[in-house]
């Protein structure tokens, strides 16, 4: 496994977060949320720093990171895409929308495009069942999607990169 090098400035931010939470192991989830905000994901090295600061085993940090689906140990794209596969969305064609995202981006679920712009994941419910099928991209909700709309949606984000 390749070791990554954490930027010193980001490490200082992480240490400040730990200090703000008094290096309290009871604040692990809050610290992990903040750490993921700083680094974009939670690689092994970040987990080791947190474990050291909170004086807990790395296995405990890893257990929390792998238990909660919000946390990720792999880098996400600048524009993370989540396709809802909850019942309402699935019944209304979410699987075909997902297939089209995979085809257009040439990646599978759980992967990130080589340019780092998009990552693709699934989730179980966005809570917008009346708009099914639903996709979120970088926090923006797109409802009543069809495979035909995927290209236009992705184009919006490619245009943002050209500005």
UniProtKB/TrEMBL annotation:
Its cofactor is [2Fe-2S] cluster. One of its GO terms (molecular function) is metal ion binding. InterPro entries: NADP_DH_HndA-like, NuoE-like, NuoE_dom, NuoE_N, Thioredoxin-like_sf. Keywords: 2Fe-2S, Iron, Iron-sulfur, Metal-binding. Binds 1 [2Fe-2S] cluster. Gene3D superfamilies: Glutaredoxin, NADH-quinone oxidoreductase subunit E. [2Fe-2S] cluster binds at residues 84, 89, 125, 129. CDD domains: TRX_Fd_NuoE (cd03064). It holds the Pfam family 2Fe-2S_thioredx. The keyword Plastid does not apply. Belongs to the complex I 24 kDa subunit family. This is NAD(P)H-dependent oxidoreductase subunit E.
């Amino acid at each position: 496994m390749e070791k990554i090098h954490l930027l010193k400035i980001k490490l200082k931010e992480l240490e400040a977060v730990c200090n703000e939470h008094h290096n309290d192991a009871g604040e692990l989830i809050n610290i992990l949320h903040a750490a993921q905000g700083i680094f974009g994901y939670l690689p092994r090295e970040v987990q080791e720093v947190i474990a050291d600061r909170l004086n807990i085993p790395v296995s405990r940090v890893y257990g929390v990171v792998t238990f909660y689906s919000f946390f990720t140990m792999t880098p996400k794209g600048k524009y993370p895409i989540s396709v809802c596969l909850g019942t309402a969305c699935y019944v209304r064609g979410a699987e075909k929308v997902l297939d089209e995202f995979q085809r257009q981006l040439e990646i599978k679920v759980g992967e990130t495009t080589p340019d780092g712009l998009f990552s693709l994941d699934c989730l179980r419910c966005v809570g917008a069942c009346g708009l099914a099928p639903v996709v979120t991209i970088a926090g923006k909700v797109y409802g009543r999607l069809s495979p035909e709309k995927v290209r236009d949606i992705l184009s919006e984000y490619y245009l943002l990169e050209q500005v």
